[in-house]
From TrEMBL:
CDD domains: G-alpha. The keyword Nucleotide-binding applies. GO terms for molecular function: G protein-coupled receptor binding; G-protein beta/gamma-subunit complex binding; GTP binding; GTPase activity; metal ion binding. Its main location: membrane. InterPro entries: Gprotein_alpha_S (IPR000367), Gprotein_alpha_su (IPR001019), GproteinA_insert (IPR011025), P-loop_NTPase (IPR027417). Guanine nucleotide-binding proteins (G proteins) function as transducers in numerous signaling pathways controlled by G protein-coupled receptors (GPCRs). Keywords: Cell membrane, GTP-binding, Magnesium, Membrane, Metal-binding, Nucleotide-binding, Transducer. It comes from Hypsibius exemplaris. The keyword Iron does not apply. Mg(2+) binds at T46, S206. It is found in: Cell membrane. This is Guanine nucleotide-binding protein G(s) subunit alpha.
Length: 397
């Protein structure tokens, strides 16, 4: 009987402890703000996730950064190969400045494709961060022979390749091409360790969700990124429960580019408008606020200011658009760039005012690769139905 009573007490104690544990978990859940990051492919949302990890989370140790070496080299290789292919596919065709460099074309095009672990991720595996570089992502040194690096460096400075690069809007070329090709001599070194900026710039396609956890002003945030490919959007609806707000990322500089996976030649910026419209009017999001990041402002500024391609060629309504009087007050930016970025913002905001919904959209201009200008980003939760940006040097809307 005494033994039975003891067992009963132990069982009650276990139940009590379990109840306390569940209560703590419930309290933690209620105190955590869950932010869902959405956007089309190439919008820069994964870069933003990395930025949050650098600014507010665990950051990237040297071992973590080594995890990205193979993918950085893959990005560089993809870039030089696409530029070489463009010499013949662009109309009119482009010739290399030096005919003898044709032998280097053969070298970069025949270099073997490096072996990978079969599934790309954007983060070193959380379960073993201290061994991520050595165990989870081994660098295939044989995939990049010395002759590949020599040929890449020679071709990149050839005037013909530079002409193809200037015409990059006419074919699919990763945004990070110039950044990594300019650093070929560093990236080829056996002792190369990527910088945080390299990690921000590397482009890795993933069909997996990504999570970043960080704390700002003693408030815990869970930020989730869902794959941006068109065939992954069916998963988005599964993520809307229990979220505090949505971060939607728009590639503002994509106004003269088409989607890489589109047979119809769909404009990247137009696709973002379409997807945003779909989300904004979804019955699942009627009470969820949207923090809108009009991203890649650095690239938009370069395109507009250099006169590469007029926005009105792709969005004719831009021709009649007038910059709001408050937009250029005190700004030293090119007036045409200011007009372009506010036009893009206006197109999105027209979607939010066209329907009678109960949620709010907060638009902001961003450049997710700019760590210095990201320092002022702060989220101040008002309640579980609204998040407001209090201070933002990154988002100077």
């Amino acid at each position: 009987m005494a033994k039975s009573g003891k067992n009963w007490k132990e069982m009650c104690k276990k139940v009590f402890n379990k109840d306390q544990e569940l209560e703590r978990e419930q309290n933690d859940f209620q105190k955590t703000y869950r932010l869902l990051v959405l956007g089309t492919k190439e919008s820069g949302k994964t870069t933003m996730m990395k930025q949050m990890r650098i600014l507010y989370g665990a950051g990237y140790t040297e071992r973590d950064r080594k995890y990205f070496i193979q993918d950085i080299r893959l990005n560089l290789k993809e870039s030089i190969q696409k530029l070489v292919e463009a010499l013949k596919t662009l109309e009119p065709q482009i010739e290399l400045e030096r005919s003898r460099n044709q032998s280097h074309v053969a070298v970069v095009m025949r270099s073997p494709v490096p072996h990978t672990n079969g599934s790309f991720t954007v983060e070193p595996p959380r379960e073993s961060p201290s061994h991520s570089a050595e165990v989870h992502h081994v660098v295939d040194k044989d995939a990049f022979p010395e002759e590949f690096w020599d040929s890449t460096e020679i071709l990149w400075i050839d005037a013909g390749i530079q002409t193809a690069y200037r015409r990059r809007a006419e074919f699919q070329l990763p945004d990070n091409s110039k950044y990594f090709l300019d650093r070929t001599s560093e990236i080829r070194r056996p002792d190369y360790v990527p910088s945080e900026q390299d990690v921000l710039r590397v482009r890795i396609q993933s069909s997996k969700s990504m999570e970043t956890i960080f704390t700002v002003d003693n408030v815990r945030y869970n930020m989730f990124d869902v794959a941006g490919q068109r065939d992954q959007r069916g998963k988005w609806l599964q993520c809307f429960n229990n979220i505090t707000a949505i971060f939607f990322v728009v590639p503002a500089s994509g106004y003269n580019l088409v989607l890489q996976d589109s047979e119809e030649g769909t404009n990247r910026l137009a696709e973002s408008f379409h997807v945003f419209n779909m989300l904004w009017n979804s019955k699942w999001l009627t009470r969820k606020s949207v923090i809108l990041f009009l991203n890649k402002m650095d690239q938009l500024r370069e395109k507009i200011s250099s006169g590469q391609a007029g926005l009105e060629l792709f969005f004719p309504e831009f021709q009649a658009y007038t910059t709001p009087s408050y937009a250029s007050s005190g700004s030293t930016d090119d007036p045409e760039f200011i007009r372009a970025k506010y036009f893009i913002r206006n197109e999105i905001m027209k979607i939010t005012t066209a329907s009678n919904t109960q949620h709010v959209c907060y638009p902001h201009f961003t450049s997710a690769i700019d760590t210095e200008n990201s320092e002022g980003l702060r989220w101040v939760p008002r309640d579980h139905s609204e998040i407001k940006i209090q201070q933002a040097t990154l988002c100077d809307a």
